[in-house]
Structure formats: structure tokens, C-alpha cells
């Protein structure tokens, strides 16, 4: 690792993080990310370039707008630092290669999608569809190395192994198709069983994008890991709401502990059903882990049996 290059890549990441903040705020609201320049979400005054330095400006202005003194969410510098850290990590992991570029692009898109979904329960097409196209395109330069590349060339002809770009693209297409149809199917079953929409088309497009980057095997691993993470989150939320409501009932209504617990349980179960589940957050974070460590995990897992 070249230290000067590492610093430059980190700084580039901070700048991209700054742009990602604009995307997270504007895309769900249907505002152009290019024009006009950055403005305060509260007073709409233009933010000068010297107040728009990643991370530093947030600390110099103590997290407030220079004009109206309204608080600016710490999300702004968190995203900048995360993107800077992501770029640096990709460089450390892959060196100055096309794999590093793919890792940066994938992580950048996922960060944007995770935070947009958490804040607004939306997964903008401008990120997912762009990501799907980029994922398919990148498969021509960085091998996806999935099921198609491993089995099909030998079946077609022995010399076909050299046509790796074609197999890699097929792997990306297959990953996108499997990811999208899996989530579409799960969403349809959920809708029929619960009567509420659990997963929307945003999640379907998100999984198509993820599939194009990681291929079939890691797509399935991502969905599996995200389901576990989502369930644990749901369980934690249920218990937290239950405990809070039991406490409130005992204080306000002077109910006995057992009575309060029983009633709070019923109301917590109803509350949980109406709690927005940002499934994109779980899919996105698990996809990044699968992209980085999934193959190592699967090799370790197969060796156990
Ligand atoms: Zn302001």
C-alpha cells in the first residue's frame, strides 16, 4: 500500500460521500442531484464551497447551518467517513485494480440505498437500475466466477474456457434474475399471507442489482443472511416495544405486572405489524459482507460437512 495513494483514495472517498449525501436527500424527493448546488434543507440558503468540505465543515460549523443555525444531521459526516473508509478498504483489499473499482462502486451504491431505505423506506431507481447496468457491465472486466463460469464452459467445449467474459456476463445475468425473482416471489407470498406489502418493487430491483454484482450463490447467501438479520431485528423490536409498554401500563394505569405484560404483548404484536421494516437495509448490508467474505464463508461451511 502506497501511503500517498491511500490518502488520495480516502480523500476521493470523502468527496464521493459528500455527493452521496446529496443523492440520499434528493433522490427520494425527486430533485436533480446536479442542479442546483448544495443548499440547507431548512432555510434553503446556498452552501458556499468553503462550508462544503467533507467532514471538516460539519465540525467547524458544529453541525449547524451557518445562516439559520438549524442542526444538520450527523448522517452527513457519517456517510462521508463511511465512503472514505470504504474506498480505503477496497484499496487495501484489492490494490489498484479493476476489482477495487468494482468494490468501490458496489459499496457506494449500497451505502446510498441502505441510508435512503432507512430514512424514507424508498429505494430509488436511479441507484438500483444504474447499479444493475453497472454490475452487468463490470462483469465483462472483473470475473463474477460463479456457477456458469465453473460448469458451462466444460460442457460446451474444452476450448470455451477462454471466453471468460461471456461466462462472467451470464453469471451476472443469472444472479440478477435469481435475486429479483426470489424477492418477487417472497413478496407475493408475504402479501397473500399477511395482507400487507412486506417487500416492494424497490427490493426486487435492489436484488437484481446485487445479483449482477455477486452471482447466484452469493445472492442466495445474501437473501438467507438478510432474512436472519431481519428476523433478529424484528424480535428485538418486539421485545423492546413490549418492555416499554409494560412499564408504561404499570405506571399510568396502575396495572399489576402480569396484567400489564399480557396486554402490552397484544399491543406490541400489533405495533410490530405496522412498524416499517426496511428490508433493503438488511439486504444491502448482507450483500456487502457476502461480496467481501461470502466465498471464504462458503468454502469454510462446505468443509464442515
Ligand atoms: Zn439553514
What does this structure look like?
- It is a single chain.
- This protein has 305 residues and is mainly alpha-helical.
- Helix content is 73%, strand content 0%.
- The protein has helices spanning 3-26, 56-60, 75-94, 98-120, 125-138, 147-156, 164-194, 201-252, 257-274, 279-303.
- Helix 1 runs parallel beside helix 4, helix 6 (147-156) crosses helix 7 (164-194) and helix 8 (201-252) runs antiparallel to helix 9.
- The protein starts with a helix and ends with a helix.
Strand content: under 5%
Low-confidence stretches: none
Computed structural class: mainly alpha
Mean pLDDT across all amino acids: 91
What is this structure's SSE topology?
Blueprint: H1 3-26, H2 56-60, H3 75-94, H4 98-120, H5 125-138, H6 147-156, H7 164-194, H8 201-252, H9 257-274, H10 279-303
Helix pairs in contact: 1-3, 1-4, 3-4, 4-5, 4-10, 5-7, 5-8, 6-7, 7-8, 8-9, 8-10
Zinc ion (ZN) binds at residues 40, 42-43, 45, 65, 67-68, 70.
List keywords for this structure.
305 residues, mainly alpha, globular, binds zinc ion
Amino acid at each position: 500500500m502506497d501511503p500517498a495513494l491511500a490518502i488520495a483514495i480516502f480523500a476521493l472517498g470523502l468527496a464521493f460521500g459528500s455527493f452521496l449525501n446529496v443523492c440520499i436527500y434528493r433522490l427520494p424527493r425527486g430533485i436533480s442531484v446536479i442542479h442546483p448546488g448544495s443548499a440547507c434543507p431548512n432555510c434553503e440558503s446556498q452552501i458556499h464551497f468553503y462550508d462544503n468540505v467533507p467532514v471538516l465543515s460539519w465540525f467547524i460549523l458544529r453541525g449547524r447551518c451557518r445562516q439559520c443555525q438549524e442542526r444538520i444531521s450527523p448522517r452527513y459526516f457519517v456517510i462521508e467517513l463511511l465512503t472514505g473508509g470504504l474506498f480505503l478498504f477496497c484499496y487495501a483489499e484489492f490494490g489498484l485494480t479493476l476489482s477495487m473499482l468494482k468494490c468501490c462502486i458496489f459499496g457506494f451504491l449500497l451505502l446510498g440505498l441502505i441510508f435512503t431505505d432507512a430514512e424514507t423506506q424508498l429505494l430509488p431507481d436511479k441507484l438500483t437500475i444504474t447499479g444493475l447496468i453497472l454490475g452487468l457491465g463490470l462483469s465483462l472486466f472483473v470475473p463474477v466466477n460463479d456457477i456458469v463460469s465453473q460448469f458451462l464452459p466444460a460442457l460446451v467445449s474444452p476450448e470455451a474456457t477462454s471466453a471468460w467474459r461471456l461466462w462472467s456476463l451470464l453469471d451476472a445475468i443469472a444472479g440478477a434474475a435469481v435475486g429479483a425473482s426470489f424477492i418477487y416471489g417472497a413478496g407475493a407470498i408475504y402479501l397473500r399471507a399477511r395482507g400487507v406489502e412486506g417487500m416492494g418493487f424497490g427490493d426486487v430491483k435492489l436484488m437484481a442489482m446485487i445479483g449482477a454484482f455477486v452471482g447466484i450463490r452469493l445472492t442466495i447467501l445474501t437473501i438467507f443472511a438478510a432474512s436472519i438479520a431481519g428476523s433478529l431485528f424484528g424480535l428485538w423490536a418486539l421485545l423492546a416495544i413490549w418492555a416499554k409498554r409494560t412499564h408504561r401500563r404499570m405506571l399510568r394505569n396502575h396495572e399489576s405486572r402480569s396484567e400489564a405484560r399480557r396486554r402490552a404483548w397484544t399491543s406490541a404484536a400489533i405495533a410490530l405489524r405496522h412498524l416499517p421494516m426496511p428490508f433493503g437495509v438488511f439486504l444491502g448490508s448482507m450483500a456487502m459482507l457476502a461480496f467481501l467474505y461470502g466465498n471464504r464463508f462458503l468454502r469454510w461451511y462446505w468443509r464442515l460437512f
